[in-house]
Write a structure and sequence with these properties.
By secondary structure, the protein is α+β, with helices and mostly antiparallel strands. The protein has helices at residues 2-31, 34-40, 43-50, 70-94, 98-111; strands spanning 54-56, 62-64, 118-120, 126-128. The protein has one domain (2-128). 59% of the residues lie in helices and 8% in strands. The protein has a four-stranded mixed sheet with strand order 2-1-3-4. The radius of gyration is 17 Å and the shape is globular.
Length: 142
Amino acid sequence: MAQAFDSVASARLPVVRQMMAGAVAAGLLALGAAPAMAQDRDPAYAAARAAGQVGELPTGYLGTVGSVPAPVARLVEDLNIKRKSVYAQHAKEQGTTIEAYAFTSGCLQIAKTAPGEKYMGTDGQWHVRGKDKPMRDARCPE
């Protein structure tokens, strides 16, 4: 009996994860993705992003592309600390983990990249966004 329950529970796990991702995505959209708005006002961030020194990671955080000047590395570190703080607050409000909230945010941030901006694809490589949709994790909400 326990074995039958385990197989049913295992079969439902992906559905539950999709439902959680959908709920987190809805929360992110309702909240306006606050970390993204704060960084968009920073001219140093905009310059680093335009220069291809900074890109979106699937984890919901920013990454540095290759070797970057120390001020850019510090900027990315600072923005990631701010993102994590926002993620923690909203994850708690929504009853999910910081990691799940950050992952869904990463999906949405990569989807919002503009042509010419960098993001890390599912292959672990940096990509430059073209006219087509970016390469995202299959678990990302649409």
